[in-house]
Design a protein that fits this description.
Strand content: under 5%
Radius of gyration: 18 Å
Largest sheet: none
Shape: elongated
Distance between the termini: 27 Å
Helix content: over 70%
Length: 102
């Protein structure tokens, strides 16, 4: 996407930016908590429970961003041209593939 097209396009998540930032700050706190748990040599199952919670939180952010991409970026591109729509769909497929593999 060209620089001028980027300036005209507003990313879908912008409407919920503060919500995403709150979630990411919470995840950051979870990561620090995990580090502390390891430093304090806490029980491995307790650490794994927290890893699972953090993973779920990251997945929620990821799914929200995928939804935003599909409902805003892909739709906007489809209104522009078939070629632009196909490009955005390919980006979404690649992103989803990376998420599924992680």
């Amino acid at each position: 996407m060209s620089e001028s097209a980027t300036a005209e396009h507003q990313h879908g998540y912008i409407q919920r930016k503060d919500e995403y930032l709150r979630r990411l700050r919470r995840i950051e706190g979870q990561a620090r908590g995990l580090q502390r748990m390891v430093e304090e040599e806490q029980y491995c199952i307790d650490i794994l429970t927290q890893v699972a919670a953090m993973t779920k939180a990251l997945q929620a952010v990821s799914l929200g961003l995928v939804e935003e991409h599909l409902t805003h970026c892909v739709v906007d591109a489809a209104r522009s041209s078939d070629e632009a729509a196909q490009e955005k769909i390919a980006e979404a497929v690649d992103a989803i593939s990376r998420l599924v593999k992680s």
